[in-house]
Design a protein that fits this description.
By secondary structure, this protein is α+β, with helices and mostly antiparallel strands. 61% of the residues lie in helices and 13% in strands. It has 18 helices and 15 strands. Helix 1 crosses helix 10, helix 8 packs antiparallel against helix 9 (238-267) and helix 14 (395-413) packs across helix 16 (501-524).
Length: 619
């Protein structure tokens, strides 16, 4: 049963591969039909014979998969769309040439008989005219006249023109008007037109054979020329040419053999016309075997040409299939790479790295990714008693515990438009206003010193308009100028212009982050520490201000935030209380709706001096 399962699984894999190959072949044939380079014979020589045999049957004349065969036939018809017109026009020219040639032969016969009549007159004999009467089966008055059979040639020419004009029209309709019809019908239509034309010519010539002293030669030439044009100027396949030769040959011999037998009997008698009968029989015996030889040679060429076309198509389809697999694998790899980076870096950074093909080798490239951000709300959170827990709990269990806890925090980020910056040990760092929330930033360039290189732009997930760009209105430009001035003031004094857009954005960002902090405390209360079985307690610090963002290093890229606001938020967390949110005055001023408790006395913050801070205990 194990081998049966393996065989079944292998069969399913092969079926999927065949389906994928068929789909690729259907697409590849469009390129094959439109690619002149694929017409080169060398394109079909690169495919191995055993590979071609695995995909074909009937001596390489049919693909195993019906859909691949259909794609090949449709593409082959498209490839020979214009060649068919040339074949039809060539037939009309050949028909006209036959008329002219017949007239030249008749003119030569007439001149020969006239010369014989003159010789007989000068010698008082009639041997020359008697020869002409016997040879050409004419009366003495007819042999010196031009007998062109104009009515027959007119009808024959009209028939040829009719069939070829109909073929041109049908080919044009199939390729341009009848779009729902498969293009392989163009090849089938050509085969039907040529078959009808061949039948018409054989019947017309043989039924009028008594008027042609050279009918075996005329029929042979008509047969060979039509077959040659059908082979090289139609795109018909080997099976079509084989049917055309077989059907035409059967009809030709079925109608001509009785005529030849009658002429042979007449040639061996002493009846009048025996010389003409002998001449026709001699021509027939000479031309009939040649028709087989020419047909055999042309059929061999048709077979080899079709094999070349099928190998060329198969190689093109296999190349397209392999290219499709490579492209799909590359696309999948790039998608996974981009998805992984988006989980590590902000989308805007990933897009910039993608433009650089994920290669950053110098600070000049990195600095284009750096930005200043205004009105950013920052959060630091860590576990109370984490060091004590780590000393008593196995590291693997600590890692599982932190993963479960931080996954819970991560699930809250989207609800509050929070961007998770990083985790260091038990410390969880998040922000609103850098990637998510109300984003106000400017590009950062290092020239003679740090500077704001362009007007600030205001974006939001709620769709608020941008305040920067070439299409900004005068009012927007004035707002951008106020934002810039407010940023400079805040950088020096820590106070925002309350009417500036960045101050309004900072209010929204702070409200979102405070809501996220309260949700974090509630989420932490649902868990207990491993082994110790004590409740999880968080210390959270929040501050709102300006930061700088960018990538650090050129290996193992890491998105980081810098600035005094980061230090202040970290100090708020370090000097906070368990299960409480410790915030700066900037946060307090932007969230007057919260039940803040003013901390008694000023807080001595390292590097900042005395600061007033506030506590919020989530319910």
């Amino acid at each position: 049963s194990g081998s049966s399962r393996d065989a079944s699984a292998e069969g399913k894999v092969r079926a999927k591969q065949a389906a994928a190959f068929t789909a690729s072949a259907l697409d590849a044939i469009q390129e094959t039909a439109a690619s002149p380079s694929m017409l080169e014979p060398e394109a079909a020589q690169n495919i191995e014979n055993d590979t071609f045999e695995r995909h074909t049957k009937w001596a390489g004349l049919l693909f195993n998969d019906s859909e691949v065969e259909r794609a090949f036939l449709n593409g082959h018809a498209r490839l020979h769309k214009n060649v068919v017109y040339k074949g039809y026009c060539l037939q009309i020219v050949v028909a006209m040439w036959f008329c002219v040639q017949s007239a030249m032969v008749e003119f030569y016969r007439q001149q020969f008989c006239i010369s014989q009549a003159n010789i007989d007159q000068s010698m008082d004999g009639d041997e020359g005219l008697e020869f002409c009467e016997e040879m050409f089966e004419m009366t003495r008055e007819e042999v010196v006249k031009f007998r062109g059979n104009w009515i027959f040639f007119a009808w024959a020419a009209m028939g040829v023109v009719f069939f070829n004009a109909a073929g041109i029209l049908i080919n044009w309709l199939i390729h341009t008007k009848w779009e729902h019809l498969e293009k392989v019908w163009a090849i089938r239509a050509v085969f039907i037109i040529y078959a009808c034309e061949l039948i018409f010519l054989i019947l017309a010539l043989l039924l009028q054979a008594q008027h042609f002293y050279m009918w075996p030669l005329v029929v042979f030439l008509s047969y060979v020329l039509l077959f040659t044009v059908s082979l090289w100027f139609t795109g018909t396949l080997f099976i079509h040419n084989l049917l055309l030769f077989s059907g035409g040959g059967i009809l030709y011999f079925a109608l001509s053999i009785p005529l030849v037998i009658a002429d042979g009997n007449l040639a061996h008698s002493m009846d009048p016309g025996r010389f003409a009968a002998f001449w026709r029989t001699l021509l027939y015996v000479a031309c009939a075997p040649l028709s087989f030889l020419f047909a055999f040679i042309l059929l061999c060429g048709s077979y080899l040409d079709e094999l070349t076309c099928r190998k060329r198509f198969l190689q093109k389809a296999m190349i397209a299939y392999q290219q499709g697999r490579i492209i799909r694998m590359k696309t999948r790899s790039e998608g996974l790479q981009k998805e992984l980076l988006q989980n590590m870096l902000p989308p805007m950074i990933v897009e910039e790295l993608q433009k650089k093909n994920y290669k950053v080798s110098s600070w000049s490239e990195l600095r284009t990714l750096s930005k200043r951000h205004v009105g950013v709300s920052l959060l630091f959170a860590d576990l109370v008693g984490f060091t004590h827990m780590s000393s008593q709990v196995d590291p693997s269990k600590v890692m599982v515990f932190l993963n479960d806890l931080f996954q819970g925090f991560d699930s809250l980020c989207e609800d509050f438009h929070v961007y998770k910056v990083e985790t260091v040990g038990d410390c969880y760092v998040a922000s609103v206003g850098v990637v998510t929330g109300e984003v106000i930033n400017s590009d950062f360039l290092m020239q003679s010193g740090e500077s704001l290189a362009s007007p600030l732009s205001l974006d939001s997930e709620g769709g608020r308009p941008s305040l920067a760009g070439s299409d900004a209105s005068p009012r927007s430009s004035q707002a951008s100028a106020r934002s810039l001035q407010a940023l400079k003031r805040e950088g020096s004094s820590g106070v925002f212009d309350e009417f500036a857009p960045e101050y309004l954005a900072s209010i929204r960002n702070t409200e979102l982050l405070v809501g996220f902090a309260k949700a974090m405390v509630r989420e932490a209360r649902t868990m207990v520490k491993p082994k110790l079985k004590t409740p999880v307690e968080l210390r959270i610090g929040i501050h709102t201000g300006n930061v700088m963002s960018g990538l650090i290093g050129t290996k193992n890229l890491r998105f980081c935030l810098f600035g005094d606001a980061m230090n202040t938020a970290a100090r708020m967390e370090q000097l906070g209380r368990a299960n409480c949110i410790h915030a700066s005055c900037a946060v307090f001023e932007r969230t007057p709706g919260e039940k803040w408790q003013k901390r008694s006395g000023l807080l001595d913050v390292k590097g900042k001096g005395k600061m007033q801070s506030y506590f919020l205990e989530p319910q």
